[in-house]
Task: inverse folding
């Protein structure tokens, strides 16, 4: 039971993130932060309402989970459906899917860095909240705002050229993609590469030049030991489309390598807590909550040995120099995001110049041949799993989604506690304290719309409070 | 580059809220002019500011909550410098402001709206709004023709360096 004199502070809503969440800080009788929770207060439930639908509808249906990263859901879902079909998709289809995914990473990272986080980085954590937005950036450093808008548009236009529209395109289908790439579209995309590369490089230079101003934040923004998880190629290279799962510890040592994503349930446990709709996945061999791990840009760069493109490889080497062990501070998600943008633009150029890229063989056709399939890819925010079971008629009987933001849930909560303990003093929050807690959450670029899905019975607690705030009745549904 | 940009926006899964999006889809399908670019979108995002800056005239189409359901309004939109509580979407005026500040050009712009009645989840318009759509489309078409026949010079703005 809480002490009669303990108090809590609620930050609701958390701003400049995708979705709805709130933060609760529990104070001890001396007014010091004792505990902290990041509550995700929205619920989507895609895993339930897709039951009974034909499996081939899943990519288009799952893309509706999110307006920012529909392409990742399309790809993971289509890969799960490829497994149901038991087909190997044509090589050009795979390359086109890779291009689609890379374009999405560029636009999503641009949104996160330039639109949502650059106000904190440019104007400072204590800036007037009314100015902490893209217009504030525009006022102080217009070229940064212009670059952000241009880079996001570059990614969005690639998606539009391939998928027919920017949001919720349904071009990725079970067995491949629905249409080949035209020469006109390839050349138009290639024409935008030099400018996108220049933006990525100058933004990285700028970010590295200001990092020193955030020494205190680097030290306290989710700077703790944890595992890091991501997909890597067989040679340990960075990839967003496929590969084996690699897990490294905080010392940078490989804990597991080459894990088959289809076997994710053997090494990823999923815990549900009563205070959030967000699941809390953990590395099963380490148990809960010791199996806390992080995914996304920071994790990907911690698990990757190389990028495989010249400029990004230089930046990765510099990134690894930040810390002799794994890079631990979540503040460095920003840095990692920029390195990934650079990699994506370079990789786009490589793929678009592939002689096979205009091939018209882009789809394998088959009926369902397996009753269970898992699809996995790297979404902008981290590793994404789609897992489906169907019946003989091809109707979905069961679905499970393990979303990047959920996999960062434990780390976000630990990070909030760390930030709150470091910056919060007394019972009143200053705008600077509040913004630092929100900024910590923003480093992960969480997408709550993507990540709130049921796994089994959702634990639920309903409390009936009287006017004085006392609990007069409580109903619990255990998990 | 197209001289007239039509941006119809809204949520097509929220009944009348989707009328801007629906009208833009219909105009897009019927449009054969290289001088007219029609973009259906769910909301106005900052990346549209560059596209807007390249047009002489921008026509926004949206559903309004101001006035009596079924009322049609057309008003000129002007860039409004000042703070904006930006998250993901912008007002037409804020989009023009971005175009002016970032790309140095502020096109002439108008906002066409019908006041909505239903905003519940659904893909159908309320009968009242549905009955006014042909009139709104005709008004937009006339406005596009006027814009193409007149020689509009976008308002230049000093580019922020």
Result:
């Amino acid at each position: 039971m809480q002490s009669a004199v303990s108090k809590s502070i609620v930050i609701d809503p958390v701003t400049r993130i995708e979705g709805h969440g709130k933060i609760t800080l529990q104070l001890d009788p001396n007014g010091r932060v004792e505990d902290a929770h990041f509550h995700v207060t929205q619920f989507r439930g895609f895993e339930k309402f897709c039951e009974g639908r034909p499996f081939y509808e899943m990519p288009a249906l799952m893309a509706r989970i999110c307006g920012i990263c529909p392409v990742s859901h399309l790809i993971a879902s289509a890969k799960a459906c490829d497994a149901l079909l038991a087909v190997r998709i044509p090589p050009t289809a795979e390359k086109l899917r890779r291009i689609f995914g890379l374009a999405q990473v560029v636009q999503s990272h641009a949104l996160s860095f330039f639109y949502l986080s650059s106000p904190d980085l440019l104007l400072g954590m204590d800036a007037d909240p009314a100015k902490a937005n893209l217009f504030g950036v525009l006022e102080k450093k217009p070229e940064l705002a212009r670059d952000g808008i241009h880079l996001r548009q570059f990614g969005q236009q690639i998606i539009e050229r391939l998928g027919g529209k920017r949001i919720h395109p349904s071009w990725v289908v079970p067995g491949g993609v629905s249409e080949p790439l035209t020469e006109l579209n390839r050349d138009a995309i290639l024409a935008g590469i030099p400018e996108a590369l220049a933006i990525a490089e100058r933004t990285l230079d700028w970010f590295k030049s200001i990092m020193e101003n955030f020494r205190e934040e680097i030290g306290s923004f989710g700077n703790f030991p944890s595992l890091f998880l991501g997909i890597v190629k067989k040679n340990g290279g960075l990839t967003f489309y496929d590969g084996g799962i690699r897990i490294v510890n905080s010392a940078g040592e490989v804990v597991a390598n080459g894990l088959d994503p289809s076997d994710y349930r053997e090494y990823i446990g999923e815990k549900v807590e009563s205070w959030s709709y967000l699941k809390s996945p953990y590395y099963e061999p380490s148990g809960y909550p010791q199996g806390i791990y992080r995914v996304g840009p920071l994790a990907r760069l911690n698990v990757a040995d190389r990028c495989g493109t010249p400029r990004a490889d230089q930046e990765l080497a510099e990134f690894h120099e930040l810390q002799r062990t794994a890079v631990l501070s979540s503040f460095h998600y920003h840095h990692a995001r920029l390195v990934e943008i650079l990699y994506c633009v370079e990789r786009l150029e490589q793929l678009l110049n592939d002689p096979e890229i205009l091939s018209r063989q882009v789809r394998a056709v088959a009926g369902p041949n397996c009753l269970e399939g898992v699809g996995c890819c790297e979404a902008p925010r981290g590793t994404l799993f789609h897992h489906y079971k169907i019946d003989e008629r091809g109707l979905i009987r069961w679905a499970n989604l393990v979303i990047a933001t959920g996999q960062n849930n434990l780390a976000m909560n630990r990070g909030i506690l760390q930030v709150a303990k470091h910056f919060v003093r007394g019972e009143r929050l200053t705008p600077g304290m509040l913004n630092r807690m929100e900024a910590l959450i923003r480093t992960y670029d969480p997408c709550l719309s993507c990540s709130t899905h049921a796994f089994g019975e959702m634990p639920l607690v309903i409390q009936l409070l009287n006017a004085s705030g006392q609990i007069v009745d409580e109903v619990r549904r255990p998990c | 580059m197209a001289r007239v940009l039509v941006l119809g926006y809204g949520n097509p899964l929220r009944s009348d809220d989707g009328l801007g999006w629906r009208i833009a889809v219909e105009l897009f399908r019927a449009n054969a002019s290289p001088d007219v670019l029609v973009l259906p979108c769910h909301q106005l995002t900052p990346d549209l500011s560059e596209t807007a800056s390249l047009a002489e005239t921008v026509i926004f189409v949206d559903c309004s909550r101001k006035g009596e359901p079924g009322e049609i309004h057309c008003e000129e939109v002007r860039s409004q410098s000042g703070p904006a509580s930006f998250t993901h979407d912008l007002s037409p005026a804020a989009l023009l402001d971005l175009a002016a500040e970032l790309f140095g050009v502020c096109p002439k712009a108008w906002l066409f709206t019908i006041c909505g009645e239903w905003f519940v989840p659904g893909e159908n318009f309320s009968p009242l709004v549905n009955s006014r759509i042909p009139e709104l489309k005709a008004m937009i078409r006339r406005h596009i023709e006027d814009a193409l026949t007149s020689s509009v010079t976008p308002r230049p703005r000093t580019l922020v360096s």
Q: What stands out?
A: Residues 452-467, 469-479 of chain A have pLDDT under 50 and may be disordered. Chain A touches chain B at residues 15-16, 67, 115, 130-131, 133-135, 138, 142, 145-146, 148-150, 152-153, 156, 166-167 (CB under 8 Å). The two ends of chain A are 22 Å apart (CA to CA). The first strand of chain A starts at residue 7 and ends at 11.
